[in-house]
Amino acid sequence: MPRLDKILANYQFGSRNDVKKLIKNKQVKVNDELILKDNYIVEENDFISVDSFKFKYHEFVTIMMNKQKNRICTHDSNDITIYDDLDLIYPSNLSSIGRLDKDTTGLIILTNDGQLNHKITSKNNNSIKRYLVTLSKAYQQEPLVNIDLGADGIVSAKTIEVIDEYKIIIGITDGKYHQIKRMIHSIDNDVKELHRLSIGSLKLDESLMFGQSRPMTQEEVGLLYG
Ligand code: URA
């Protein structure tokens, strides 16, 4: 069971020593009760407050983000990352489930639930990821099947929806490096914009602006497990 000081440090209130001081200085409450023990055991759904900042504790946090352009999906970089777009109420041990290219926008899921992350990224996950692709040349109804990506194998679009001449929605199950861009290159075309709309039956919440995120509901997480 998680200790209060560990949780506060993970939620980025400071180092283990900093948060021990917050507790000693009577700045921390759990369910509106002042807590003075740093090894106090926090339960799922307890409300933790630090001064006037209050949040509900959950062991697993899973959020969806509408990724904006010019953000990379790794933690350890000098570049601007998707994690820079999160506000501070999230724990620091979130990781993205898979990655999108720096210039790709749309649905990305972040979680500290290792089992969920593994399930979605594992090889036998057949969920279709749908991408809205803006092309630089008109789409000529090419089927996008059996495309040879060299060492990454042969890939095919599982679904294609034509929006207009320059916009199509492609569904793929695998997630090879630059997969959609390489598939589009193979038909002598280029990707101008790439935006992920859905993963399996989970759709991006369209009310999220680029760079915004929100916790996923239990039903939404269930869709991923479904
Ligand atoms: N395919 C790509 O080429 N880039 C992405 O970011 C995702 C899929």
Describe this structure in words.
This protein is an alpha+beta fold. The protein has three domains: 4-56, Structural Genomics Hypothetical 15.5 Kd Protein In mrcA-pckA Intergenic Region, Chain A (Roll); 62-123 and 202-225, Pseudouridine synthase I, catalytic domain, N-terminal subdomain (Alpha-Beta Plaits, 2-Layer Sandwich), CATH 3.30.70.580; 129-199, Alpha-L RNA-binding motif (Alpha-Beta Plaits), CATH 3.30.70. Helix content is 17%, strand content 29%. The protein is built from five helices and 15 strands. It has helices spanning 4-10, 16-24, 114-121, 179-185, 218-225, and strands at 28-30, 33-34, 47-50, 53-56, 62-67, 95-96, 105-111, 129-135, 147-148, 154-155, 159-164, 167-172, 191-199, 202-203, 213-215. The strands form three sheets. Strands 5, 6, 7, 8, 11, 12, 13, 14 and 15 form a nine-stranded mixed sheet that branches. A hairpin with a 2-residue loop joins strand 13 (191-199) and strand 14 (202-203). Helix 1 crosses helix 2 (16-24). The mean pLDDT is 95. The structure holds uracil. The site of uracil (URA) has 8 residues, from helix 4.
